[in-house]
Amino acid sequence: MRASLLSSALLLFGGVVQAGTPGKRKNGPGGNGPPVDASILAHTGQPEGKEVVHNNITIYITLPSPRNPRSKPRSQTAVLILTDVFGLDLVQNRLLVDSFARAGYLTIAPDLFDGSPAPEDINTPSNPSFNVTDFLARHNTTVTDPIISTTISYIRNQLKIPKIAAAGYCFGGRYAFRVINSPSVLGGADVAFTAHPSLLTDGEISGIEKPVAVAAADVDSLLTPAQRASLEGLLLERGRPYQVSTYGQTVHGFAVRANYSIASQKLGKEEAFLQAVRWFDRFLL
Ligand SMILES: *[C@@H]1O[C@H](CO)[C@@H](O)[C@H](O)[C@H]1NC(C)=O
Ligand SMILES: *[C@@H]1O[C@H](CO)[C@@H](O)[C@H](O)[C@H]1NC(C)=O
Ligand SMILES: *[C@@H]1O[C@H](CO)[C@@H](O)[C@H](O)[C@H]1NC(C)=O
Ligand SMILES: *[C@@H]1O[C@H](CO)[C@@H](O)[C@H](O)[C@H]1NC(C)=O
């Protein structure tokens, strides 16, 4: 009797009850698997994915486990990670790919820097031989766009996956906007998330066609409070689904390179990851 009342209540609220285990939901609302929590986000440890080379581009890829109840409903979707300037050399970038795969998404990150990512933070280059200006000039949109469009065509044509979510961080954040711009030179994604994007132009913000979510640091010289307000104003004007979340007491790069001994940064990285997964769940499924 109790079980059936509980079942009715769960059904009323959109849950699906697994036979014989009253109260335990087999699927979340919409039948898309259980909700995610921050325990699936890895910040340290060994990456679990593999590398493939496609058209001379190295791509890091992690497949979701077939035993994960979230995987099957996401079999027609992929997450495309567009990294910061540290690229695939930074273990946190690979671990982010793995973490999205644990959310049930096949996840992929191209090497945007042809084997030579930045060695140091572009904000505080402590390596005097590293010239940020030169690095960014060499990795301009003319050079970077084709790498991303090739990766998108790999997802669609080789992997035969039709729906793509782009998640861009710092340097890659700008390109998360570019892939949902129209006319898209990049083959297009269906939804985007970006954390602390840099070098974004007003035109790229106003040009979006698809939903975008933004995770911003409160302290960020590359996306200042004034730029953040302007970004939000442009998204409001554009009239597409959007979300701008500012995480207090975080710094540029927190969604990738948070200092886990600082509670606000650890929380910020976890929340930004969950923000991305929920945004993708909402608009891809
Ligand atoms: C392929 O990659 C290598 C190493 O990054 C580079 O030297 C070469 O020019 C690339 N070839 C083409 C056709 O892009
Ligand atoms: C850094 O690169 C830029 C652009 O290539 C160049 O103009 C500048 O002189 C370089 N700076 C240093 C310190 O080498
Ligand atoms: C972009 O970078 C490439 C390679 O470094 C360079 O040849 C090209 O002139 C640059 N394009 C622009 C618009 O700066
Ligand atoms: C992380 O934060 C702690 C506490 O503020 C600090 O002691 C440490 O140097 C920081 N680590 C890095 C790598 O910045």
Automatic annotation (TrEMBL):
| Database matches in InterPro entries | AB_hydrolase_fold (IPR029058), Dienelactn_hydro (IPR002925)
Signal peptide limits: 1-19
Q: Which GO MF terms does the UniProt record name? A: hydrolase activity
Q: Which residues form the Dienelactone hydrolase domain?
A: 75-283
Keywords for this protein: Hydrolase, Signal
Q: Report the Pfam families cross-referenced here.
A: DLH
Q: Which domain of life is it from?
A: Eukaryota
- PANTHER family, per this entry? DIENELACTONE HYDROLASE, PROTEIN AIM2
Q: What is this protein called?
A: Dienelactone hydrolase family-domain-containing protein
